Amino acid sequence: MDRVRQQTERLSNLFRDAGAVPVETSVLQPADTLLDLYGEDIRARAYVTSDPVLGEQMLRPDFTVPVVQRHMEDGAEPARYTYQGLVFRKQEAGTGRASEYTQVGYEVFDRADPAGADAEVFTLFSQALKDAPVIAETGDIGVLIAAVAGLSTTERRRGALLRHLWRPGRFRALLERFSHPANRTLPSILDSAPEIGLRTASEVQARLDALREDAKTDPLDPNELRALQAILEVSDVAPNALAQLREIAKDLNAIAPALDQLEARLSALSARGVDVNGLKFSGAYGRTTMEYYDGFVFGFHGEDAVPVASGGRYDALTRVLGQGREIPAVGGVIRPEMLEALT
Predict the structure, then answer these.
(1) What are the extents of the domains in the chain?
(2) 88 annotated as ligand-binding
(3) pTM more than 0.70
(4) Would the annotation count 107 as a binding residue?
(5) Is 246 annotated as a binding residue?
(6) Do the annotations mark residue 89 as ligand-binding?
(7) Is the link from the previous residue into 78 a cis peptide, with omega within 30 of 0?
(8) For residue 339, what is the enclosing H or E element?
(9) Tell me, what's the pLDDT at 289?
(10) In 3D, which of 328, 269, 267 has the Cα closest to residue 294?
(11) From the UniProt record, which GO molecular function terms apply (predicted)?
């Protein structure tokens, strides 16, 4: 345990030396405000309790959301923060994973140069882990979001795909469903459906209207569908992956701006001394992490694939918590216990 504390302090000092201001957040967080921001996985694993005065509360499952909330309330620009402390998440029986563990993090709020901020965070984490036997992987959720948003289909279908982007099984099922002609006889079946269940008549009517609209919708464009599936299959070193994605963009031009950001990021990483020619990139990477990531995502893990560190860009989260204000933001966390187990 003493060695874990030493690792924690070493990481904290490294982040403070990089210009981060130490911050603390309460162990108890307001559940009604924050749970929806974490996504399905964390909601299912959060420890939630009811307080007679404070209302529904949860043990802190993560630092990023409360740090963003604090910054959007009264933070100056630009800003860099660091923190350390316990987070709490339920674990499935038999996994052997701790339900409470330490995170040490670094967050950057800076609108001047998002690509440079991405490179700053990744390089700093690489430096923090330079003596550990870890493997770095990267991805870009922004490319996937742009691909889905650019599909020539209904807003309803795009919205459904975006909601399930972080659940690969459901996402594949939706793609399969949307790639075939809908059942055109559905509206007449719906008109004769009996009124049963607990939902209100207006809720039922809204659902019927949605199903009728979907029944009239043409299947996804085959070229766009192949392009989206090709993005998910990209797995190579970063420059090669970018070249492959540029080819895919010929059939799905909506991803071109996200690819420009990816290219700028690789240039910024290279300028900071990162060997991008040896950096892994996967089009599907990051889809099982925090749902608030909407751009660059990265992780470091040992041979057992258990994450030692992870992070990414979460611009949209600042928009939600900023109530109209927003600022580009990126950060990540390191787990000292996992790091110490490798060294």
Answers:
(1) 182-217
(2) no
(3) yes
(4) yes
(5) no
(6) yes
(7) yes
(8) helix 336-342
(9) 73
(10) 328
(11) glycosyltransferase activity; histidine-tRNA ligase activity
